[in-house]
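Here is one chain, start to finish.
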Amino acid sequence: MSDVASATRDIVVEEVLPHAPETIWRALTTGALIARWLMAPAGFAPVVGTRFTFQTKAAGAWDGVIHCEVLEVIENERLAYSWKGGHPENAGYGSPLDTVVTWTLEGTAKGTRLRLAHCGFVVPLNRSALETMGRGWQQVVPRIASIAGD
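Its structure:
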């Protein structure tokens, strides 16, 4: 029995971007555009069941590969994919991570309300990822607006 209770935490970021949902959707589902606001995906397609990867900084026993699978696609409305990485030998950065990223788009009079929910961080195991990615997503989501217009 563990001495430390664990809990699941989520990251949620919501912004209204000055573009139509179709424009934001394109930025979320086009590999070359994703590479500009996040990281270059290898093998991504907005098709349920598609497996793809991102490469980030390696740490300890973890090679830095983030393994993803597209879980849900509702064009111009919702995109969800798994986000898994880490290694059991790592503590802190690069510890095992099994989460889900969901993008929800809703048209508004001013453009699109874009909501990111990155869910399933197990604390304390994923505390480092939760804190780092929480700050990161706060910067990434607004960046999509400038990329989307290209």
